[in-house]
Each structure stands twice: as structure tokens, then as C-alpha cells.
């Protein structure tokens, strides 16, 4: 069953055409990894899914919700976009936690404020999620008292607290020191095993090989190639994909 369907998504910033007629379908419990060089449109694509960036053209469908780009912002459209965002968990490069709230308060905030959940129910769910991401002993800590990896795990728990249909990750480990990356990826792997639908923009090739049901390679605002992790990493068809993988492999060796 399809969860997300993107049809002919276009996005330009002035003269710069960042996305060119992107078509993508993601099915329930599928993990899709998007990779590609900087400036290829990966992060913009994620932001267009939630209308954090308004596409210049195309249609975004999430479950039964459908939003067409470029239409007047009337009440119905605003309500649909709000529902779309409520059903999408977004984990950014930067953690974006409330610095004046504890880990527990950060996680329970969304359900209480946005979903109007009962505070005690939201608190119990937040405790469950923080335990799930390995932070049972850090619930009363403020972001400044947590490592980068711990903050990102709080951000994942916060996104999960809204019980989204899909989780979107925009290079979630890029701001972390190497030794902290593993703990975040481990949480993401566990979510994938549990059947969470996920779209992940990442340069973590080992994660993509291990977890992705499908890998998409983007460049110049286009989907150049897509396939299983085995097809993309071991048998890429496009020369541009082959060059990118060679470059990434060389970077890893140099490091």
C-alpha cells in the first residue's frame, strides 16, 4: 500500500531549477534512501513533501491527503497541509530542540499542543519513546546537558511522538562526531525493523546497504537511478552513479 506519492514535483529558486519533474512512490514499511552529491536536490525534495518548501508544480499525496502545488491558500488547503505535517515526522541535520525544556518536555510538547492529547497520556508515551531510543536515564536533562547523538535521539523520539505515517530524515548524522553516529543509526535501524516507513537522505553508505529496501541516486534535480541496495551499490547502470560511488569510496579510504 502506498504511503507517499509524488507526481511531477518541480522546485526553482529564482533561475536555479532544483527539482525537475520528480516522481516517487513509497510504500508502507518501505525504507528509501536518497543519496547524491551536494546540491542535487535531496533536502529540498524532503522539504517539499511537507510543504516547508512550496513546490512550483506537482502533487504531493500522503495517505488520503493530497496537495497540489501553486493553488490558492484557502482554509481547506491550509488544513490539509497541517494534517500532512502532523502525519510526517521530520528529523533535521540540526536537532532543533527547545533549549529551555528537558528531553521529556521536548517529546511530550507536540502531542499536547498540536494533537491536544491528555498531558498524562502524552507524558507516558514520551517516557516510552525516550526509553525506546536508549535515553531512560536522560529524561530530565536539558539539551545543553546532552551529547549531539543524544540530542538527535531525542529529536527522533519527538518526531515519533506524533505517531506519523512516515519518518523523513535529512542527513541526521551529518552534524555528529563519528563516534556518535552509530548510536543514532542504531535507533533508525530498529525503527526500520519494526516496519516504520522511512525516507532517509544520507551519506552513510553502510547504513544504506544494510537497511534500504530501495536506493535512489539524485543529481542535478533529477532521479538518475533507483533500485535495490544490491543493484545500486554492486551493479549500477548509470555512469554518473558509478562515478559518485567511486568518489564516496575514495573519501572513506582517505578518512
UniProtKB/TrEMBL annotation:
Highest taxon of source: Bacteria
Entry keyword Membrane: yes
One Pfam family it belongs to: ABC_tran
Record's keyword terms, sorted: ATP-binding, Cell membrane, Membrane, Nucleotide-binding, Transport
InterPro entries, alphabetized: AAA+_ATPase (IPR003593), ABC_ATPase_HisP-typ (IPR030679), ABC_transporter-like_ATP-bd (IPR003439), ABC_transporter-like_CS (IPR017871), MetN_ABC_transporter-like (IPR050086), P-loop_NTPase (IPR027417)
PROSITE patterns noted in UniProt: ABC_TRANSPORTER_1 (PS00211), ABC_TRANSPORTER_2 (PS50893)
Protein name: Amino acid ABC transporter ATP-binding protein
Amino acid at each position: 500500500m502506498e504511503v507517499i506519492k509524488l507526481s511531477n514535483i518541480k522546485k526553482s529558486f529564482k533561475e536555479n531549477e532544483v527539482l525537475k519533474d520528480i516522481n516517487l512512490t513509497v510504500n508502507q514499511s518501505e525504507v528509501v534512501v536518497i543519496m547524491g552529491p551536494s546540491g542535487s536536490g535531496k533536502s529540498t525534495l524532503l522539504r517539499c513533501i511537507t510543504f516547508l518548501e512550496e513546490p512550483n508544480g506537482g502533487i504531493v499525496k500522503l495517505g488520503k491527503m493530497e496537495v497540489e502545488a501553486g493553488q490558492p491558500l484557502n482554509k481547506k488547503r491550509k488544513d490539509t497541509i497541517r494534517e500532512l505535517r502532523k502525519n510526517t515526522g521530520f528529523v533535521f541535520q540540526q536537532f532543533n530542540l527547545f533549549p529551555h525544556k528537558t528531553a521529556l518536555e521536548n517529546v511530550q510538547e507536540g502531542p499536547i499542543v498540536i494533537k491536544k492529547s491528555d498531558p498524562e497520556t502524552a507524558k507516558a508515551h514520551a517516557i516510552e519513546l525516550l526509553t525506546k531510543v536508549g535515553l531512560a536515564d536522560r529524561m530530565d536533562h536539558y539539551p545543553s546537558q546532552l551529547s549531539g547523538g543524544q540530542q538527535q535521539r531525542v529529536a527522533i523520539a519527538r518526531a515519533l511522538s506524533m505517531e506519523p505515517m512516515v519518518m523523513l530524515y535529512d542527513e541526521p548524522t551529518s552534524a555528529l562526531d563519528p563516534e556518535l553516529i552509530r548510536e543514532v543509526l542504531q535507533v533508525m535501524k530498529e525503527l526500520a525493523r519494526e516496519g516504520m516507513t522511512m525516507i532517509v537522505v544520507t551519506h552513510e553508505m553502510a547504513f544504506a546497504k544494510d537497511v534500504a529496501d530501495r536506493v535512489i541516486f539524485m543529481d542535478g534535480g533529477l532521479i538518475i537511478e533507483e533500485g535495490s541496495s544490491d543493484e545500486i551499490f554492486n551493479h549500477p547502470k548509470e555512469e554518473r552513479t558509478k562515478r559518485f560511488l567511486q568518489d564516496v569510496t575514495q573519501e572513506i579510504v582517505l578518512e
